Amino acid sequence: MFGGFIIARPYGIPLRLHWTLIVFLPFIALRMAAGMGISSALWGWVAAFGLFASVALHELGHSLVARGRGYPVRDIVLTPIGGVAFLASAPRRPNDELVIAIAGPLVSLALAVLCWLVAAPLLHSPALNLALTIEFLGYINMGLVLFNMLPCFPMDGGRVFRAWQAKKHGRLEATRRAVTLGKFFAALFVVLGLFNNLFLVVIAFVVWQAAAAEYRVVQMQERPPPRNPFAGFVDPLSIFRNGPPSVPRQHEAIDVEVGPPPYEK
Ligand SMILES: [Zn+2]
């Protein structure tokens, strides 16, 4: 599902634009112009770029903290419903998961405050459209904080929930609880989305899939391997049939980021 063009390498981390984002960007720009109450499409585009720059900075927050804690970051992918940062391996220690999960929303919170501080004095100047756009990006960033901090695994709040539960119940049971809660929210998003916004239904689908997939990975990682009656016996011909044994490479998303779904106030 993921891939796309590399548009920048902040701190050496490839930042990719998924092709679907390019398709959806004009639609998002239109929705954002309408949300701001500005008739000029230009400001819709500025806000749309601002939204994805905000999401990229949020992901960079997760990524730099992850790297600082010893988890290499493969890349960051921006999609129409938000961004995803991929680590070479998921954090195993609850405290690592906690600080990595919280870093993104903290960046968004700082950006929200910054936008509002910059916009306030401009609201009474001739640069009204600029001021409204920056103020709107403040709301967008606050939306990123609030929406992503819902305890909806594998979004940030769900990861915080799992880290908290993992300290008491271990990683597997904590993941099971977080996934159950995540699926409950996904079902809620479907109900709300069908009446309000189809983006929310897409997000619900992605959240459900990602939660289920991550649970399978954790089950494989945490369960002891089954006893193999042929342990120690190596079939010398198997290398010709199957090729050399390969180590599966897992790139695990630390984030299923989502923009505030309505893209409007
Ligand atoms: Zn995040």
Describe the structure.
This protein is α+β, with helices and mostly antiparallel strands and 265 residues long. The chain has a domain at 5-152 and 247-253. It has eight helices and five strands; from the N terminus they run ββααββααααααβ. The protein has helices at 19-36, 41-68, 94-122, 128-148, 156-169, 171-195, 198-222, 238-242; strands at residues 5-8, 15-17, 73-79, 82-87, 252-253. A five-stranded mixed sheet has the order 1-2-3-4-5. Helix 3 (94-122) packs antiparallel against helix 5. The longest helix has 29 residues, at 94-122. Mean pLDDT is 84; it is low at 245-250 and 258-265. Zinc ion binds next to helix 2.
What is the compact description of this entry?
The protein has 265 residues and is α+β, with helices and mostly antiparallel strands. It has eight helices and five strands; from the N terminus they run E-E-H-H-E-E-H-H-H-H-H-H-E. Bound molecules: zinc ion.
Stretches with pLDDT under 50, minimum 5 residues? 245-250, 258-265
Amount of helix: 55-70%
Extended strand count: 5
Biggest sheet character: 5 strands, mixed
The radius of gyration computed from the alpha-carbon positions, rounded to a whole number of angstroms, is 21 Å
Question: Ions, cofactors, ligands: which are bound?
Answer: zinc ion
Enumerate how many helices there are, as a single number: 8
H/E element sequence: EEHHEEHHHHHHE
Q: For the largest beta sheet, what order do the strands appear in spatially?
A: 1-2-3-4-5
> What is the percentage of strand-forming residues?
5-15%
The SS-based structural class is alpha+beta
Shape descriptor: elongated
State mean pLDDT (0 to 100 scale): 84
